[in-house]
Known about the structure:
The complex is a heterodimer.
Chain A: H1 6-33, H2 35-74, H3 76-111, E1 120-129, E2 137-141, E3 153-155, E4 160-167, E5 171-176, E6 183-188, E7 194-198, E8 206-208, E9 221-224, E10 236-242, E11 248-252, E12 261-266
Antiparallel strand pairs in A: 1-2, 1-12, 2-5, 3-4, 3-12, 4-5, 6-7, 6-9, 7-8, 9-10, 10-11
Helix pairs in contact in A: 1-2
Chain B: H1 2-6, H2 16-40, H3 52-67, H4 74-87, H5 94-114, H6 118-144, H7 151-176
Amino acid sequence: MIRLSIQARQALAKLTLPVLIVASFGLMLLGKADTLLAERARMALADTLAPIYAAVAGPIADVHRTIAEVGDLWHLRVENARLRDENERLRRWQAIALALDAENERLKASLKWIPDPAASFVTARVVADAGGVYAKAALLSIGPNHGLRKGGIALDERGLVGRITEVGARTARILLITDINSRIPVILENSRARAILVGTNGARPRLLYWPEGVVPQNNERVVTSAEANAFPANLPIGTVRFSASGVPEVEPEALLQRLEVVRIFDYGLGGIPPPEPPAKQTPGRH
Amino acid sequence: MARRDRAPGIRPRLTIGRRLDIAARYSFPAGSTLVLMLLADAPFSLPGQAALLPAITLACIWFWSLYRPAAMSPPVVFVLGLLLDLLGFNPLGVGVLVMLAAHGIALRARHFLGQQGFAVGWIAFGVVGVAVACLGWAMVSLLTFRLLPFGPAVFQGVLTAALYPALAIPLSRAHRTVADPEQA
């Protein structure tokens, strides 16, 4: 240990805080210059914490379920009547859907339609909310040798959840469709007009850039568009709702607040590849 | 340690157990902050849980910077801020800067705030909490080149201020008992 005079030691102690503040600015520059480094550090930390969070997630889910059950007991009669009603309505729809499906198959058979390739998917458990104050994301726990890639498409049992942005050794992070950085090409189902779904960090992402002459209708269904080859066509996203100020927003079908299990589809699409460091060009060899 | 050596009187011998005890008491502030941060990040799926992590981190760093600056030194604050950035998926460095700024303010204000009652301490912390949330919002907006919605920052500031008593009361009890090196 180096022996320093008391004055020198006091001066050094006073210097620590300013030096560390300068270092924090350096860290910001480093994070901006090398985004891969920050990403790797985050995923390493997430990989370490994921088993712990996965272990506590079980008991927490039990507590949530118990609380929900107590609430359900209160509304049992009303809920029952509503469900019976809905069941009847859905049964009628099921008959229509089956008839349409059969007709669709017949028409496709007579048109020599090339069927879409069946997508492979893996199911993964959401272990934590990987967002922050300014981000909406979820952390998945996945086993080793999962074969997941950046750009994998996540759906829950109802609709589109988001896309995989970071993959670690045991975890993957999904950027939710509500995140402020999320941009999704969509189709309005009634008018078949294309638009872009833009996240706002709020509960409902916003619709932008629909063509002139078309106005999104209230309660119109919104599905993904195959444009830009980032998504397959016709994945359900949600329904159009107008905000108080008259801005068309989309109420997501997926339960983004309470994600438990999601399916990750790999459609083998190559559109909009994730950013990679530029490859070095070797002169004279092409 | 210096104060301990200067005080006259008979002291028990420094055995390994007592050394460990003293070390544990010295590392209590940083350790408890770390544990609380990991707890705040656990998947409880509470509404608005994202704002809980910066709120708890700031409250702990502020409290220990005021009452035990020897155990909450700038390097410790730096590491905790870095962990906040990594856990909260912030741009790297924002949490570090914000927490170091709060630490600096706490060091400046500790002589004044030490003589005041709890209410004044709470108001002062509320102001710092809102200021920290605004600074964080401004830095994240600057680093992502985008004007982010201001609502979450306001919520974070208010939550931080509101959480303070719930954390300060158990922490001040710990400050006088388990975290006190004089009692080793």
